[in-house]
Amino acid sequence: MDHQNIESLHLLKALLESENGTPISLLQKAGVNVKLLKEKIESELKKLPRVQGSNQYSSPGLNRALGKAIDFAKEFGDEYVTQEVLLLGLLEGSDNC
Fold first, then answer.
1. Quick one: 89 exposed, middle or buried, by C-beta within 10 A (0-12, 13-18, 19+)?
2. What is the tens place of the pLDDT at every residue in 61-74?
3. Which residue of 13, 19, 70, 88 has the lowest C-beta tally within 10 Å?
4. Helix or strand or coil: residue 5?
């Protein structure tokens, strides 16, 4: 990854890389075309500026999404953040997912 900012799209891409992952199942049950979503994510990531030899930072949108995920985990009484809760956090807190 040659992007300086780690965006919400990077996290969503990672969640969708596991073919047997729960996020894929949830999205499919909601009627989402996961293959098309993956293609769209790749297309959007290619539009981001690339840098080399620089520090990486999490974007404000990713920070909000992770914060929402932590809030959801606490609300659900979970001790850790699951993939499903990360997906919820992205849907609620991200600016570009």
1. buried
2. 999 999 999 999 99
3. 19
4. strand
